[in-house]
Amino acid sequence: MTLIRQDDVIQSVFDALQFISYYHPKDFIQAMHEAYQKEQSQAAKDAIAQILINSRMCAEGHRPICQDTGIVVVFLKVGMDVRWEADMSVADMVNEGVRRAYRHPDNILRASILSDPAGKRINTKDNTPAVVHMEIVPGDHVEVEIAAKGGGSEAKSKFAMLNPSDSIVDWVLKMVPVMGAGWCPPGILGIGIGGTAEKAMILAKQACMESIDIHELIARGPQNRVEELRLELFEKVNALGIGAQGLGGLTTVLDIKIRDFPTHAANLPIAMIPNCAATRHAHFILDGSGPAKLEAPSLSDWPEVTWDAGTTARRVNLATVTREDVASWQPGETLLLSGTLLTGRDAAHKRLIDLFNRGKPLPEGVDFTNKFIYYVGPVDAVRDEVVGPAGPTTATRMDKFTGALLDNTGLLGMIGKAERGPEAIAAIKKHRSVYLMAVGGAAYLVSKAIRQARIVAFADLGMEAIHEFVVEDMPVTVAVDANGISVHNTGPKAWQAKIGKIPVLTEG
After folding, report:
1. All domains of the chain in start order, with CATH
2. Which of 199, 218, 274, 293 gives a 20 to 30 Å CA spacing to 507?
3. Are 466 and 217 in contact, with CB atoms under 8 Å apart?
4. CA distances from 288 to 84, 114, 410 (A)
5. Is-above-0.85 flag for pTM?
6. What is the torsional sign of CA 480, 481, 482, 486?
7. Are 329 and 335 in contact (CB under 8 A)?
8. What is the largest CA-CA distance in the chain?
9. Is residue 79 a contact partner of residue 141, using CB atoms and an 8 Å limit?
10. How far apart are CA 249 and CA 130, in angstroms?
11. Helices 42-61 & 6-22, crossing angle to 10 degrees?
């Protein structure tokens, strides 16, 4: 009988969460580099380059790959012959490991978990509790799968209860374009088929945590229906032309992972959960010998990739930029921003709209006149950092606030990741404003362009407070211009036509 000690569980969870915050899995790096090498879309190639450069920087600096350091999900298989030396429950041990990992002073991770989700939505301050799934199995050890799942990709999860005669492939191909780019492609799609509604979702989440091996499957050929589905979906999803960051290109998914389970004769439950460009997961075993040891990758595992904005990039002085300047920017154009930005996410926007509705002034120090707002919730700084990793959050969550913000301020534009919806695009066109896109999955790289940072309003919101950033040569792409033209609409359609394997998307 194996004795598993409480401190070993806590330490192993702590170590794993720190490890995956700054080390991409080797298989992911290899797959992303292969996508970079074959990519023909310059916009997508540039985005992948930034993701790879950011990944290496994080491995070297031991800082988070993404500012969204995720909600912790743990799958435990506990052997029936295991005995515990502990005075805490297993879930409490896991949560103590999470607490220590997210508060680690040398690599603080962003606390994103809110209690009272349907009410006051109060930050728990330490990213607990984790979501823990536990299974009792034969054996004398504890097998652990742990992930830190980003909210942007989690928000794109899909589920359906199909009829048994319905096509799984048709459903996936219908859902992927609806997901947009907020999950930061290219990444992995985890698909769960069968069981019940909740079982399908769990299967999809577990599938996300598997290693990338699609090219091995292509080489040897499928041996069952699930493997046939993986290959068919891998080809057809990439043929959609969505590409890196939704800009249009050859690679939308690096792999399709599928798990299935027997189901009722009347049902065909299917779930799909994307894993983003900050894919974070680790697998280890506790066998009573002490804390688990994770082997750090070698820096030689990362490719030597370079990127710069090039001579065609337009440098923008945020202190002097005018609405007339903004109107001259072209869709897909690269800009290098220097000057002062204000930040704001969901909670800050909600408060701002409430002030507008009550006829109240903006907080002291908040003036959006001729300014840009950056949708970001940064990680806290450590050591000599100005700010921690500070990549963009999904812009579509701010769509419902955009019209009111543009109506009530002199805001010139917004910066975020992924596409804007019709409501936001209409407001941007009406005000001759602009939406700029930063690369999701390059948070540490982006933070190096931030020279000064301070909180100017709503400090009680923590990472969702309004910050003032002073940036230098921050790279962004014009994603929606002053005429309402969106590269997230034009890019994928153009590349789907080039790939030419399925019909071109139609409007509507």
Report:
1. 1-24+65-149 (no CATH), 151-285 (no CATH), 314-492 (3.20.130.10)
2. 274
3. no
4. 10, 34, 62
5. yes
6. negative
7. yes
8. 74
9. yes
10. 36
11. 140
